[in-house]
Amino acid sequence: MRVREWIIERALWLCALITVLTTIGILWVLLSQSLVFFREVSIIEFLTAREWTPLFVNKQYGILPLLAGTAVTTFVAIAVALPLGITIAIYLSEYASRRVRNAFKPMLEVLAAVPTVVYGFFALTVVTPFLKDIFPEIATFNALSAGIVMGVMIIPMVSSLSEDALHAVPKSLREASYGMGATRFQTSFKVLVPAASSGIIVSVILALSRAIGETMIVTIAAGQQPNLTFNPLETVETITAYIVQVSLGDVPYGSIEYRTIFAAGLMLFVFTFILNNISYFIRKKYQEKYE
Amino acid sequence: MNSRVRNQVRDKLFEYLGIFSTAIGIFLLMIFIGSILVDGLGRIDWDFMTSLPSRKAEKAGILTAWTGSLWLFFLTAVIAIPIGVAAGIYLEEYGRKGRLATLLEINITNLAGVPSVIYGILGLEIFVRTMHLGGSLLAGACTLSLLILPIIIVATRESIKAVPSSIKEASYGMGATRWQTMQHQVLPAAGGGIATGIILALSRAIGETAPVIVIGALAYVPFVARSPMDEFTVLPIQIFNWTSRPDHAFIINAAAGIIILLAVTFLLNGIAAYLRYKWQKNTQW
Mean pLDDT across chain A, nearest whole number? Predict the structure, then answer.
């Protein structure tokens, strides 16, 4: 009996170990291949040069255009998701009746369940033609359309995490505010939002990280043309879209062009890693506050 | 207008803004789905489901794509479910609480936030190159399994946490061992929650496109996969491929493919929601 228990515990331990090995694997793959890449291309050039053309004859390895593309699409997405998500969270948590909330919440969750390739299709075939009516000069592949759709996709993420944060505010604070004769609007914005601010910030940081790492929407709708611009009406290429572009082409294994995806992937990983950890520590801190 | 009226007006206005914001998300979803149904519904027929890919849009079908997705679904389930549930059990019940446990928790939170395209890069180097699996179904399933492990682990841990300790203590009091308690008391009680998490995770896996592209799944596979070592394509890749062609006939094909993909995704999410509802209802501790 004891032997059996021991074997089972070891087996379970091995499975848990896989999560650690995954992290080590990601770091190892990205770092080892990037190291080889940076032996041929200086890090300074990589971070400061203004052209990214590894797939052309005249090769330039400046990641700034890909960073700009990622920044523009992410910015648009957050500009859509942040005001809508937080308004929805406050409405559902403080205004809506239980019945309304129970009807709306699952519908919003559906937005998060739709595969991203489907969102990419929407962006290209529905949103871009619509934007063309408003901005005739807009490119067929543009950052605005991809960003808007990405924003719609992450609305449920912002709204549900922010709503949880609002719910976690002790009831006494709410009652004290209403007791003073405050309206729901005043209570929401003067008491609850400040009290839940760390939770709301966490939701925004996670949404940011999600938008930076999102791949298919930007690949389909924003284009595959590195462009150092912050104009959302132009075609751009994000870090993620570049990785897909290289994967679809026939770049020889082990070549420097092939290794660019690891250097680009490393950049992407660093950004999302930092954001995820900031949000983790903020969350830990505010959980302690109310417990 | 005195300040009391002004405050009430502001309060009411924000309520309308709230309704409007909530409705706009749902409204957009309906437009999206509506436009796709209009585009693609007429294209779905028996031929579409049973035809191989083709350069002519009217002749092309999704046979290799949906069989590939089905293969990937089952292979990923076979790999990810036992490992994920076992890891969740270990972390919740066996692992010592302490600094190491905190590190493991941070690690899993981080893995859940790693962009899926990075998992593709990991799979490309580890499974496709180092383990020589090539762009096979097995390599794809291993990659997607790593991607969804954090979801299954977190669901398992939370379902186990929800089981009251009195049940465990009663079991130990009867002389049951740790694993006997797990197998006969805790897991059956936590099963509904775990199953919900597993289905949501698998639904995520079959909707993924980027990681499968990176490990080298092909858009054009002219045969149905017969073994886990075969090359493959999946429905999302087929949709992506059709979406990126200028010819409008292929856009219609993509819309038809999306209808199938969405139907499966919503079905899985519906099952998960039902299981969660039933589980929560049956477990009033």
Answer: 91
